Amino acid sequence: MKTRDFPWRWQKSLVIFDLESKSMFKKVVIIGFGLIGGSIALSIKKNRLAKELVAWDTDQDCLKKGSELNMIDGFAENIKSASEGADLIVLSVPLAEMRGVLEQIDLQDQIITDVGSVKGSFVKDVEKVFTKVPPRLIPGHPIAGSEKKGMRASEANMFEGHSVILTPNEESDKVALDKVSKFWSRIGCKISLMSAEDHDAILAKTSHLPHLLSSLISESMYDEPDRSGALAHAAGSFRDMSRISASDPAIWADIFLSNDLKLIESLDRFLVRLENMKNNIASGNHSEVKTFLERGKTVRDHFSSITKEL
Amino acid sequence: MKTRDFPWRWQKSLVIFDLESKSMFKKVVIIGFGLIGGSIALSIKKNRLAKELVAWDTDQDCLKKGSELNMIDGFAENIKSASEGADLIVLSVPLAEMRGVLEQIDLQDQIITDVGSVKGSFVKDVEKVFTKVPPRLIPGHPIAGSEKKGMRASEANMFEGHSVILTPNEESDKVALDKVSKFWSRIGCKISLMSAEDHDAILAKTSHLPHLLSSLISESMYDEPDRSGALAHAAGSFRDMSRISASDPAIWADIFLSNDLKLIESLDRFLVRLENMKNNIASGNHSEVKTFLERGKTVRDHFSSITKEL
Question: Of A86, A228, B137, B229, which is the most exposed, with the fewest CB atoms less than 10 Å away?
């Protein structure tokens, strides 16, 4: 019987029934059960995307806690056994651990994706392990996160309304790309496809450089003789500008070094602007300083109009 | 009759009665009725600090609107008539307009304070107009604000829980200093006293440099060929790091140039760190990069523990 034989109200019910009963995947495996892995688990459960959801991590306590909380249906002893029989593997370990994880995967016809913040270095790791990027491996990056750390900070709606960038290549399997896209769409994300290189160039500007600057804004106060006194007089601007400097130093050191070339390119362009601004302030050039600030305001207002986050 | 003759419960009522009935000032005049002036008006009304509250601004529409909304009791035609009979004058005009405003004040025995973001330049303006800082003029700066602009964005609780820095000198009138301190205390602020120079050094680090960096983070995207596309992939880090770049360019150009020496000092120290970080990334020095990030995280965690704003 086709759905058009039913009145509209019933069709709607049927659609809901269909979505809820039919999971996209039989067995999804999350490798790396931290903030992002945990939030993906919650998103999968919330949207009923897997019949079975299994996780692996070096931290057994987190896995046990995740099972107790029904965030996952079970956990594996090692990556090899976790990857057996999976139809989707999501890699959510820090960049520096990707290669070691890839080496342990028992590669068959699983679809594999990852959530790493740098795509060029991930593709290099994949090529080192598998000679070339397996057609059913679709590199990805959900543009979302938090300065918090660990599975316990997971959020079921971390990715909703955010974009996910996928960086397939010409040999990517169309079915795998389609399934990974639908996976993120069902979680509530907007999907963008681009090359790994374009991804890394954009993220250097919109995420990695701002992160580096945030850390240095905080770090500049490290040696302050009366740091408590100075920080007590800091308000909203310092609060916002320093927020992401609370992020995990090891993970971000990895990101900076993995995207070193694009980050240094962005940093060099930023340094030119900073020197320029400094000279304009030193020479009292009010009109040039104001022009810089106006251009910045134009971009921020543009961003606000796009994201409607203000 | 002394309050100790009453049982405790009655004493408390008496105190409330006393606070509500007895305004601190007969006539308060706010010169400059924008975001900050408007928020001060709302704070004064909320805390019943003035029997009469008058404002002056070049923008007559704002003054009329403020009267209609009962934010103020009336407005003056010019600064001279506004300042007559006032016992407190609060200057909340942009830094560049302070001198012109000071020249028009009919100086008698009014207490005067201001809310300017730079204190050294304000003191210089005062000295140019009055030869020396009048003893009853107490320079001040509430460390609060918003990237929004104009009287209509005013908030009655903008200053609550924030600090206010006052920069009296050795010749300051003790009664005037006490009254200005109590004025801000009653609004809900914590008061700090320091020299104008210390104020400007601290604010360069905690506010002016972060602001400059925020503007340049946004400005760096100005010439981006596909700016919409890039901004669509920006998330929480860019949102926070760019927020204050939406602030009024003219006001912030004034602040940067008014605090030029301290700001350039901070900027130079920041540039050294930025070059250092760049070299560590270029040479793949993971441990040094991580150390920088750890020091930044230490400061941010320190800040969070002080402000409990996270």
Answer: A228
